[in-house]
Amino acid sequence: GHGERKAALEMINRHSPGSTRRLTLGADKGYDSADFVAALRRMVVTPHVAQKARHSAIDGRTTQHPGYALSQRCRKKIEEPLGWAKTVGGMAQTLHRGLDRVRARFTMTMAACNLARLPKLLPT
């Protein structure tokens, strides 16, 4: 739906209300809509949104920029551990109530994710 896009625009407004300094926003394909991209451009925010295969609102002036490719690589580094936490770590739906318990579970899950990644990072 539109709720996440609306929340993203509100967060940008809270972060830098009325800013004229160019910001970038990285997001997944769910944010690739003409109205969201246009709103970002009006707010002087460069949309580094992953492109949909068809009918993308992200045009060549953004995707040809070297910063766009860098942003997509950084986004992948962030998304992969969170995806692991949801699928393997059981964080798709929390088993606990209360912020402290959920936070502790998330911390343990991400520590397990790091331990699972460790053999790939070590030299052989």
From TrEMBL:
Pfam families per UniProt: DDE_Tnp_1_6
What is the protein name stated in its UniProt record?
A: IS5/IS1182 family transposase
* Natural source organism: Halovulum marinum
Q: PANTHER family from the entry?
A: TRANSPOSASE INSH FOR INSERTION SEQUENCE ELEMENT IS5A-RELATED
What residue stretches are annotated with the Transposase DDE domain?
41-118
* Domain of life (superkingdom): Bacteria
